Amino acid sequence: MSLRAVKGMKDILPNEISKWHRLEHAFRQRVEGYGFREARFPIVEPTALFVRSIGETTDIVEKEMYTFTDRGEKSLTLRPEGTASAVRAFVQHSVQAKEPVTKWYYIGPMYRRERPAKGRYRQFYQAGIEVFGDSGPFIDAEVIDMVVGFISSLGISEVEVLINSIGGPETRHAYREALLGYLTPYRAELCSDCQRRMDANPLRVLDCKVPRCAEIAADAPSILKHLADEDRAHFDGLQETLNVLGTPYRVDGSLVRGLDYYTRTSFEVLGKGAGLGAQNALLGGGRYDQMVKSLGGSQTPAIGFAMGLERLLMAMPDGPPDRHVDVFIVAAQADVRAEATLLGRELRDAGLRVESDLRGGSLKSQLRRADKINARIAMILGESEIEAGVVQLKDLQEQTQDEVPRTQAAARVHALLSE
Ligand code: HAM
Q1: Domain boundary at 315, 335, 366, which?
Q2: 378 in a structural domain
Q3: Looking at the 3D structure of the chain, how many domains does it have?
Q4: Which terminus of the chain has a lower count of CB atoms within 10 Å, N or C?
Q5: Cα(255) to centroid of ligand 1, in Å?
Q6: Same-domain status, 304 and 348
Q7: Does residue 408 share a domain with residue 261?
């Protein structure tokens, strides 16, 4: 049997790549406009990093990590997300001692052994940001406003922005009691995972996908009713700032993210348009004010989000047809191919993207190929053109043809492209 890619992992071939480039470029531009700088982290990390930060009772850690033993020694894991690595790097390089506020972004593959479905893969790409050193709530609002603006700039209009606060340790303590009081009578009806979660981390029950658990969770008391005064003021501040910015949002007291590290602000943006199906969370994020300290750093508040690039691509309208070649050089006779190669280099040195078919072949077949790859210009070079120091410049878009001195060929193409 021939070998195939691992289930849930996809190849991205050149015919799809321009949309990826467009998305990544737009993301970089947007976040760099807010002072974020790119960081790149290893794809493999010590397993303990994810267990300690994402949490032992989360689906990710319990069921979805690709974990292996490195040559019989260390337990390593393919990163299921980027935040834990960012925090590890932030602590490891003592970044908090160098700058008061740190703004990082990253783009890269993540790995979760989930059940593959439309919009849900085992290797998927995230683009995310993390801010360290600002306790908010203004930065929370700015980050949410930034990403909502970004999504709309991609032409994705039907979205819903959900925000919630899950408070700090004091709120969580009070809420835990209330939640346990509510869940206890249902204990026997919950799935075995949730029965365990009730003891270890009852908040996780609210994020369970098992239908009966979700039904029970739907009527659970809202954490928003249990916010401590400071958490309430923080959440009010977030909403007031979003109102000033005119950023649309809906408060959803039942929004519990699938990772344990969150405190206070949490948010998701859902895509409502066709094409996404059930996996409609375009991005998720929130504040994680305790994580830097719990991984060995000094107390540092932090907030961030990550977007699923495959899901954004599914929701984005198609752009103009891909053009990756400006000029296709056509060699009118087989024995001018050396000179055609030289012409190609001249044009590339002048900043053009140039293709040719150096295998030879008829004029007609070379022109057909120029059309097929959507080149804008076919530049024909034959013996008589070489002798006269000219080229034939065929504009495939405008269907015009012109004889141009070879020394002016690149400038003419540039002029046509910028029209
Ligand atoms: P997350 O909600 O687990 O958060 O993932 C963020 C986004 O990644 C999701 O909203 C979704 O678009 C995409 N995603 C997740 N799993 C898959 C999958 N199996 N296939 C395709 N796309 C997927 C985090 O990862 C946090 N690190 C976000 C964050 C950053 N919080 C603070 N800073």
Answers
A1: 315
A2: yes
A3: 2
A4: N
A5: 14
A6: no
A7: no
Domain contains 292: yes
How much distance in Å is there from the Cα of 377 to the middle of ligand 1?
A: 43
Kindly state if the Cβ of 198 falls inside 6 Å of ligand 1.
no
pLDDT tens digit string along 91-117? 999 999 999 999 999 999 999 999 999
Domain extent, residue 151, equals 14-168+228-315
Over residues 49-57, mean pLDDT: 95
Percent of the chain clearing pLDDT 90 (strictly above): 91
Residue 371 CA, ligand 1 centroid: distance in Å = 40
> Which atom, in ligand 1's list, is nearest to the CA of 126?
8
Whether residue 208 lies inside any domain: the answer is: no
* CATH number, position 292: 3.30.930.10
Are 346 and 296 in a shared domain? no
* pLDDT score for 369: 96
Q: Does residue 81 line the site of ligand 1, with CB under 6 A?
A: yes
Encode the chain in three state secondary structure.
CCCCCCCCCCCCCHHHHHHHHHHHHHHHHHHHCCCCEECCCCCEEEHHHHHHHHCCCCHHHHHHCEEEEECCCEEEEECCCCHHHHHHHHHHCCHHHCCCCEEEEEEEEEECCCCCECCECCEEEEEEEEEECCCCCHHHHHHHHHHHHHHHHCCCCCEEEEEEECCCHHHHHHHHHHHHHHHHHHHHHCCHHHHHHHHHCHHHHHHCCCHHHHHHHHCCCCHHHHCCHHHHHHHHHHHHHHHHHCCCCEECCCCCCCCCCCEEEEEEEEECCCCCCCCCEEEEEEECCCHHHHCCCCCCCEEEEEEEHHHHHHHCCCCCCCCCCCEEEEECCHHHHHHHHHHHHHHHHCCCCEEECCCCCCHHHHHHHHHHCCCCEEEEECHHHHHHCEEEEEECCCCEEEEEEHHHHHHHHHHHHHC
Quick: pLDDT tens for 226-250.
999 999 999 999 999 999 999 999 9
Question: Of 267, 294, 315, which residue is a domain's last?
Answer: 315
- In short, whether 285's Cβ falls inside 6 Å of ligand 1 is yes
Find out whether the beta carbon of 64 lies less than 6 Å from any atom of ligand 1.
Answer: no
**401 and 344 within one domain:** yes
- From 49, 54, 107, 283, mutation site for ligand 1 pocket: most ligand atoms within 8 A of C-beta: 283
pLDDT of residue 202 exceeding 80: yes
pLDDT average, residue stretch 257-280: 90
